[in-house]
Amino acid sequence: MAAANANADVDAALNGDYDPLAKYTRWHNAPIAVDIPIGSEGEEVEINLQDLEDPTELCQLLENEKAERKFWVTVALAYAKQSQLDYALDVLERGRTIFEKGQPKDRLSILSCMSWIYLLKSRQAPRTLGEGQDPAEVKTKEHYLKEATNIMNSATRINPAYPPLFLTRGVLNLLRASLATSTKTGAAAETERTDALNQALKSFDEAARYSDGRNLLALMGRARSLYLLKRYAQALQTYQQVLSKMPELHDPDPRIGIGACMWQMGYHEHAQNAWERALSLNSKSSIAHTLLGIFHLRESGKYPSDHEKFQSNYKRGVEYHLKTAYTIDKNQPLNSAAFSTYFFNTKRFEVMEPLAKKAIERTDVNAIASDGWYLRARKEHVLGNYQLAIDAYNRADAARGGQNAGYFPAKFGLIQLMLQSGDLQGAKFRLEKMFERNKALEIMTLLGCIYAEDIFATQKANPKEDKTVDVQKALRMLENVRKNWKDDKAKVKMKPDSAVLLYLARLYENSNPIESEKCLAEVESIQRDVIMDEFHFDAMAEDFTEQVQEQMPPQLHNNIGCFYYREEAYEQALQRFEIALNATLKLHEKQVEERRKAEEENENAEELDLTDTDALVTTISYNLARTQEALGQREDAIKTYEGLLNKRHSDYTDASARLAYIALQQAPQDDGPKKMQAMYAADYGHPEVRALMGWYYHSSKKKTSNLAEDQENRHYKHTLQGYDKHDLYSLVGMGNIHLNLARDMPRNTDAEKEKRMKMYQKAYEFFDKVLQLDKFNAYAAQGVAVALCDDKKSYSEALQILIKVKDTVRDISVFQNLGHVYCELKQYQRSIDNYETALKKQIQARNTKAGAQKPVNGDSSEPATNGVNGTSKLDHKEDAQLLACLSRVWFLKGKHDKSILSLTTSLDLMKRALATQSDSPHLRFNVAFIQFQIVQLVNSLQETERTLDDVTAAKAGLEEAIVTFEEIAQVKNPPYPKSALEQRAAMSKGTMMRQLERSQQQQGEYERSNEEKLREAKARREEELRARAAAAQRRQEEEEARDAERRNRREELVREAAELAETYRQTHLSKEYADMTTDEETGERVKRQKRKAGGGGRGSRKRKQRDDEDGFIEHDEDDDGASDGSHRGARDRTPLSDEEEETEKRPAKKRKRLERKVPKATKSGAKKEKEGKFKSQAVVVDSDESEEEEAVATPRSGAGSEDLVDAPTPVGDGDGDGDGDGDVSMRQADADDGDRDEPVAAPKRQRKQLRTIADDEDDEDEDERAPPPSSASKFATRVVDDDDDE
Predict the structure, then answer these.
(1) pTM over 0.70
(2) What domain of life is recorded for the organism (predicted)?
(3) Strand partners of residue 48
């Protein structure tokens, strides 16, 4: 018995330690004293078991007195109760030796008790040896489990079916499962753990089956095994089964297990309720306090740190529950782990370390050990002890299964250490393996960021490497994380992260700038919310927005400003750069203040913000100056550039280059070239300076067909040979030079064509070399497209290239080249759109130059490259060439569509081009030529396709064209031969003018004639409209008359209906008045009483015989209106006269009753047979005695209610009494008369007088009239007495 109690007590320790409570406290069966019999006379000696010391003498006494086995076990339990487990084992070992040859039951009891104590020592022993601990002195859990296993094997050899062994074996397997991950890792450890748990479950099931389910500790062990196997629903059911069998059980407490199962299943509030109930039963339950503390800490995580609920939950969780649990039991592993987390967050590492170590050593739950190792790893990680951190992270991961399962926070810690050490590929490999098993958002976030970092590093080191696949992977993962933020239905929802958005912005920067800008806008929104929570600015202040924006990172404003600049939103870009500059200056002031405080307080300077504000100011200031240039604020831009050079970096080459460029714009013939030469001489080796100088040579050189004399060509060649053979700007410039030369080369002979083709081929080679170095170089691609158009006339291929280039380069030249290609493809409207876009951009950029560069995020810039023909203009006027191209497209469109309007538009555009170069003979000829073509078109059109104004304008234009041709013929170098111009002028004066005059005369006559016709047609049309209006008026009047007539008729019908209703009402009232009489007793108006009617010839023979016997005639009357079909007539009896007596003795004639079927709705509440015989709208009754027969109106089959107006039906007296003798007699008569069951066809209309035989002495009988017709079309006839005067 004592052994069994010990078993129960030790097993209960698996579910937490509790203070004594009533009789259910563990060790309660261990007595405080024991009486040991001595001698043979029955004497006893009392042994005090409260203050026990060395058991040697006590064991000697038990051995000498040959004490029974129970005394040995009781003494051992007394030592165990006082935590003297080694003495308890000594006592049991001594007893084992003594009972070695005793009864098997005695030996099994001792062995079982020894195994339980070894299991208890295993729970109290450390999991692993600490630093400097001697294995000979300190034993681990594994050692005591081996000892318990040996004892169990010895007991099994004695009797393997001994019931207590089942429970012991189950607990042993549970403890083995908890140590599986300490000795092995990976799949082997998980397999060993699962096998041990299954063996434990089997042992507990055997113990429960042996006790028929009464062993609650076996059920508790079974529930715990199921819980560790993650079969939470079954474990919950078992815990509930234990609680239902023994509600007062609290040590071990099944409510703790119920709450744990609920927690794992996601019902955290239910878990709280279970633990609160356990705490109410045992206020000193350490495990209940700890679990409730963890619950409240979890609840606090749902709110921000300054929220009231966060503070209340956090305070209750830490200060009340966790602190109370620690006070109750300082060795509670779960409490130690929870408290160590608190001390880690407060950075009290010296207190955290022993608590985490205690959680590892004292627990038999792998998850708690994993938490302890994880906290130690985080501490070493923070302190920079990376090797110790790696070891602790691995142990934390292995404690939860490692490899396929494991602890994800520990895995993430290892990956962070890899990233800090620069092992990017190793970290990526581990994350990819994790992602294959678990698509957690944290894994996607970190893996997407690693992909992005790898992409950025590769692009910087080797721009040629294609990382498209990795870019798509990174975008896919980061976008999935981003979608989770906006998904309200997501089970696990993360908060928006600025880092993820910044990575997305960088990945989208080149491929999708719009999406990149959206990401930056979201980052700004997140930063604004953080700043508002931190600084609490006054939202009503005028500078509220500026205050908030200046607290944001300046890099964010700079990047947003660059996107605005790219979109040519220069005002917004300028505002952003100014805010970024102010934010940088404030950041610098903040850094200076923090550094001063750190020096005063001797703090670690590494924790301070070390952002390079000087680099930020330099970059942002340069971008600000570039934006000022774009807005035409050159003086401000010059001040900004000079400030960078004078105050910060005098060797800032980009700023010097921009100042030289501005000087060249302002003074292209004087100071500008000098500053360009000075800038070039100061830093001629800088690639950006050489590129700008090449652009200057291109813009200022004289046109030549000799490459050796081309200064721009020599400059590019020198750059490629002496500085950088892969300089992209020089290669593109060389390709443009060869392209322009090939375009201007003659092609009259085959040799000239061959030479021209080779020049194009040379241009192709330069452009192809650029695309090999940078496949996304849009300027080289545009050069290839121009060459395809000029050399091979491959306009479709060139169009595809230019469309892609347009998405990258927003230069005027791209739209101009697209206009050329669309024009050649005869898509005139698209060509016009592109030309107009180019012209619009040119007007918008009047204060900017063709060499304007885009702002950058760093400290470098790239000059613009080739235009349409590789040239750039320095003047502010409209481009005459662009206007001429647009005029040409309108001219071709007008010729194609035969549209005077299009040709007129072309003429206007050409005149605008001429206004920019008024002395150009080519443009003057173009104007005259268009005017000449307009005349030809006007002469060729029919009178219906032109107007007199068109002809007049064409005539005026022709006169101007004649003068222009004559003047151009006199210039030194006319565009066409002088004779051809003079001949065209002569033809215009003669033939064309005469044709135009005839056209003018014909057009005038046509329009006058047409005008008269139009006038007559208009008059006819107006007359027709007036006739239609008159007809419509007549129709309207007729319709109004008909409406009035209909209204009158309707009113008349309404009046007639009212009159009929009134007539009916009066008739009804009169009938109702006739049915009423004055009561002689009360004097009130009451309804007339029905006269009691006799049965006549309708009685049966049995009734007649009865009436003959008593000398009376019984009068029965059918009540057709009763719902139950019963006879309700009252019975009247009077003595029979002789004549009547003789009449009654005559044989009665066979009577037939006519019957008409009625709808079911009229038969409610009546029997089917009675309804079929008596309930109808008309009944014909034959009289046996009356010789004066009258026709009775009977409805035909299927007749409507209108045919039933005069149909007589019997009515009852309405007394509602169907229990009289008349009812019985009628039923008997029906039974005798079998012919009545068959309905008889109705005879022709004939009326028979329906008579009733009344009592001669009845003075109160009065006439009775039938009520008016009802809504169901039932009509009752009047039944009167023969003597009725009325």
Answers:
(1) no
(2) Eukaryota
(3) 33
